[in-house]
Design brief:
This protein is mainly α and 80 residues long. It has two helices and no strands.
């Protein structure tokens, strides 16, 4: 993440001045903001997928336990 001073210095190195320099700094700040937003969204999506996977896994274990209980109640031999 660049500070305004760093962006100003970089813009000056590119021989930018006045409105061109201000536009450069604003565009770079916007670009960095968008990058951070995309990173946060990506992390949010990853965590949601992880949560859903854990939820699905728990649901499958519960279904497996219910099935085993029904099999035992019916007096059938357990498979596997």
């Amino acid at each position: 993440m660049s500070t305004i001073k760093e962006l100003m210095d970089l813009g000056r190195e590119l021989d930018l001045t006045g409105n061109d320099l201000r536009s450069f700094v604003k565009e770079e700040q916007d670009r960095e903001r968008d990058r951070r937003l995309a990173e946060r969204q990506s992390e949010k999506d990853r965590l949601e997928a992880e949560r859903q996977s854990e939820k699905d896994s728990l649901r499958l274990r519960r279904l497996g336990l219910k099935l085993r209980c029904r099999v035992r109640r019916l007096g059938l031999k357990q498979v596997g």
